[in-house]
Amino acid sequence: MIEDMLRTPSAVRDAERYTAHNYHPLPVVISSAEGAWLTDVDGRRYLDCLAGYSALNFGHRHPTLIRAAHEQLDRLTLTSRAFIHDQFADFCRELAALCGKDLVLPMNTGAEAVETGIKVARKWGYQVKGVTPGQANIIVADGNFHGRTTTIVSFSTDDDARADFGPYTPGFTVVPYGDLAALEAAIDENTVAVLLEPIQGEQGVVLPPDGYLPGVRRVCTDRNVLFVADEIQSGLGRTGRTFACEHEGVVPDLYLLGKALGGGIVPVSAVAGNADVLGVLKPGQHGSTFGGNPLACAVATEVVRLLATGDFQRRSTELGERLRAGLEGLLGKGLVAVRVRGLWAGVDIDPTLMTGRQACERLMERGVLAKDTHGSTIRLAPPLVITADEIDHAVAQLAAVLAA
Ligand SMILES: Cc1ncc(COP(=O)(O)O)c(C=O)c1O
User: Fold this and answer.
1) Edge-to-edge strand order for the sheet containing 172-175?
2) β-bridge mates for residue 230, sequence order
3) Mean pLDDT throughout 194-198?
4) Each residue of 20-73: pLDDT tens digit?
5) Going by CA atoms, what residue is nearest to atom 7 of ligand 1?
6) Mean pLDDT of the region 189-209
7) By C-alpha distance, which of 373, 393, 5, 327 is closest to 199?
8) DSSP assignment of 32-87, as one string?
9) What is the dihedral of CA 36, 39, 45, 51, to 10 degrees?
10) What is the CA 80 to chain-centroid distance, rounded?
11) Which atom of ligand 1 lies at the shortest distance from residue 114's CA?
12) CA-based, 20 to 30 A from 376: which of 39, 205, 254, 280?
């Protein structure tokens, strides 16, 4: 039987056998990839419509990034921050310029960037704003996803992410996403920051109501509160701009960046801000052994240079319109809602038809890989190197899954 000759079933079994079950992956085992395409251990090809949750904005193995990584591997991979290495300054300067900020602080994972933002905001609150010691508070939104550390899950409103991981870190107030009046009402003399995703990715690509982000910016400025934008998933070209905040002309006090910053090769995250905020940190107060390592900086500098051309942002805008048109054509034909910004889409499937998981399994059988978020919602976030024809192909496969 052909089925018996496939390598996938045993590879799936082995992966399940030796790992904690903190993920529920689709039963596909990838062995190589290029651009927007993945190949599995049995030679089947799939169009990648997740792009590593936006960590692969530039596609798999972008030649410029791979070259930078190879060259760096041959010279120097790690020093720790005890010494300065020759890739560090360029990366920090060029990323700061891309962000329009004075300084950056490199870390590794997104959660670390969020933790860094929280620590900086608290210290700024005590040292600059004059908040009573130990009383600093940060306002966050319900439906948020900022990572998995014990502090971050303390203010999650998703029971799966939060339950049984207490005791929880105090100092956070949750308000409804998109409700400016609630946010303003929650601010008091101890509020040091508002921490928001400009678009809530994990929640299903939930877009803020028009005027919300500018309103948050205005309130934060008026009340001397930092606006911390978690652009870890929404940033770096995904939505057709370098930052999702730009769609409404908003500039936060701190950008939290990750995912695509590492070019799909290494984990790289960073916080970008001005000296009056990021400057509160002094030696010994924060750090990371691997943060800003030479390999990370070499790759991420090239990422910043790719973004500085604006080409990926333009592609995302143009192709995003094609994705939107295709998906909106499926409204009433199995889809009940579609939210698109750039090459990022949340689609809600009629829950009487199938779950998001079932839709993703059926898409997989048709050679398209995507990921469900909650219930009957799936998220499409293809690499920004995807072509118009490939977008049409992905939409056609979704249409076929919905019609079956
Ligand atoms: C908006 C946002 N913030 C933070 C994170 C955490 O990033 P990491 O998984 O690299 O810790 C994620 C990951 O999905 C995210 O989407």
Assistant:
1) 103-107, 269-273, 254-257, 226-230, 191-196, 137-141, 172-175
2) 256
3) 99
4) 999 999 999 999 999 999 999 999 999 999 999 999 999 999 999 999 999 999
5) 110
6) 98
7) 373
8) EEEBTEEEETTS-EEEESSHHHHTTTT-BT-HHHHHHHHHHHTT-----TTS--TT
9) -30
10) 26
11) 4
12) 39
How do residues 146-168 score in pLDDT, each as one tens digit?
999 999 999 999 999 999 999 99
Q: Report strand pairing: 377-380 vs 371-372.
A: antiparallel
Is 58 designated active site? no
Active site residue 142: no
Residues with CB under 6 A from ligand 1: 53, 109-111, 114, 145-147, 197, 201-202, 230, 232-233, 258
Tell me how far the alpha carbon of residue 145 lies from the centroid of ligand 1, in angstroms: 7
- Ligand 1 pocket: which of 57, 115, 145, 257 to mutate (most atoms within 8 A of CB): 145
Of 232, 257, 374, best ligand 1 pocket probe by most atoms within 8 Å of the beta carbon? 232
* Residue to probe by mutation, ligand 1, list 107, 152, 233, most atoms within 8 Å of CB: 233
Instruction: Supply 211's token pair.
Output: 């005027």
- Taking the CA of residue 112 as reference, the ligand 1 atom at the shortest distance is 11
Domains, the chain, with CATH or none:
2-61+312-403 (3.90.1150.10), 76-308 (3.40.640.10)
Nearest CA to ligand 1 atom 2: 146
C-alpha 240 to ligand 1 mean position (Å) = 19
DSSP code for 312: H
Q: Please tell me the distance between residue 304's alpha carbon and the centre of ligand 1 in angstroms.
A: 19
**8 A C-beta contact, residue 276 and residue 67:** no
**Please, are residues 150 and 116 in contact by the beta-carbon 8 Å criterion?**
no
Atom of ligand 1 minimally distant from the CA of 197: 1
**Ligand 1 atom at minimum distance from 55 CA:** 10
**8 A C-beta contact, residue 257 and residue 270:** yes
DSSP class of 135 = -
Number of Cβ within 10 Å of residue 359's Cβ equals: 22
Cα–Cα distance list, 337 to 186, 241, 328 (Å): 31, 23, 8
155 is catalytic: no
What's the mean pLDDT in 123-128?
A: 98
- Which atom, in ligand 1's list, is nearest to the CA of 256? 3
Alpha helices in 350-387 (DSSP H): 356-365
